[in-house]
C-alpha cells in the first residue's frame, strides 16, 4: 500500500525504455543505416563515428549492420561511393568546352556542398583521410583519378596528371578552410564570391601554362 501511495500520480509503471533512433514499429532498411552512417561520418569523421553509435541512430542491432556491410570500413565504402559518382558531378560541366571550365566546375561543386543539414562527401573524406587510409584512397581516387583525371583528359591538355593534382590541392584546401576549419570570412562568403575569387586559378591549372 505504501508503495502505491508513494507512486507519482499519472506516472506510467513498467514502461519500456525508449532508445534513440527510429520510432518503434518502423522497419530499418539498408538505406536507413547508410543515411545514419553519412550523418555520423560528416559530423565526426571516420575515427570519431563508432559502429555502435551508428547502429543506435539507425535503430538497428550492430549485428545487422555487420551482416549487411561486414565492418565499419565496409559501411564507410558503401555510404560514400554513391555520393562521389563523377558522372553526377560532371553532368553538364564539360558540355560548353574548355572556356570557363574552372568556373563551371567550382560552381557545381560549391552548390552541391553548400547544403546545410545534408551530408557533404568531400567534408567526410577530407576529415577522415587524416586518420583513415581507406578515406585517403577514396579521396585520391575520386578527386585526382575519377573526377579531375577525366576532366583534364577530355580537354586534352598536356601534363594531365599534374593538372589534376593541382586542381585537387585547391579543392581539398577549400573544403578544409570553408567547411572543416571554417576560416572566416571564407566560411560564410557567398558561393558566387568564392567562385569569382578561385575559378581563375582553377582555369589556369586546367588549361593554362603551369611551368
Automatic annotation (TrEMBL):
Transmembrane segments: none annotated. Residues 50-69 bind DNA. InterPro entries: Homeodomain-like_sf (IPR009057), HTH-type_TetR-like_transc_reg (IPR050109), HTH_TetR (IPR001647), Tet_transcr_reg_TetR-rel_C_sf (IPR036271), TetR_C_16 (IPR041678). Residues 1-17 have a biased composition (Low complexity). Pfam families: TetR_C_16 (PF17920), TetR_N (PF00440). Keywords: DNA-binding. GO terms for molecular function: DNA-binding transcription factor activity; transcription cis-regulatory region binding. Residues 1-29 are annotated as: Disordered. The keyword Ion transport does not apply. The keyword S-adenosyl-L-methionine does not apply. Residues 27-87 form the HTH tetR-type domain. It comes from the Bacteria. This is Transcriptional regulator, TetR family. It comes from Nakamurella multipartita (strain ATCC 700099 / DSM 44233 / CIP 104796 / JCM 9543 / NBRC 105858 / Y-104) (Microsphaera multipartita).
Amino acid at each position: 500500500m505504501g508503495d502505491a501511495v508513494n507512486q507519482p500520480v499519472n506516472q506510467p509503471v513498467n514502461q519500456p525504455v525508449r532508445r534513440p533512433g527510429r520510432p518503434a514499429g518502423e522497419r530499418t532498411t539498408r538505406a536507413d543505416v547508410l543515411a545514419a552512417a553519412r550523418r555520423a561520418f560528416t559530423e565526426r569523421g571516420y575515427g570519431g563515428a563508432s559502429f555502435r553509435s551508428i547502429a543506435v541512430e539507425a535503430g538497428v542491432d550492430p549485428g545487422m549492420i555487420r551482416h549487411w556491410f561486414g565492418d565499419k570500413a565496409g559501411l564507410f565504402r558503401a555510404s560514400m561511393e554513391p555520393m562521389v559518382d563523377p558522372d553526377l558531378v560532371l553532368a553538364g560541366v564539360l558540355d560548353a568546352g574548355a572556356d570557363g571550365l574552372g568556373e563551371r566546375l567550382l560552381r557545381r561543386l560549391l552548390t552541391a556542398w553548400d547544403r546545410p543539414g545534408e551530408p557533404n562527401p568531400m567534408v567526410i573524406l577530407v576529415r577522415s583521410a587524416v586518420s583513415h587510409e581507406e578515406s585517403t584512397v577514396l579521396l585520391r581516387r575520386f578527386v585526382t583519378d575519377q573526377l579531375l583525371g577525366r576532366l583534364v583528359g577530355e580537354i586534352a591538355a598536356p601534363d594531365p596528371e599534374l593538372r589534376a593534382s593541382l586542381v585537387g590541392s585547391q579543392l581539398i584546401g577549400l573544403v578544409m578552410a570553408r567547411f572543416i576549419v571554417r576560416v572566416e570570412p571564407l566560411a560564410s562568403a557567398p558561393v558566387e564570391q568564392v567562385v569569382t575569387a578561385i575559378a581563375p586559378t582553377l582555369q589556369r591549372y586546367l588549361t593554362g601554362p603551369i611551368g
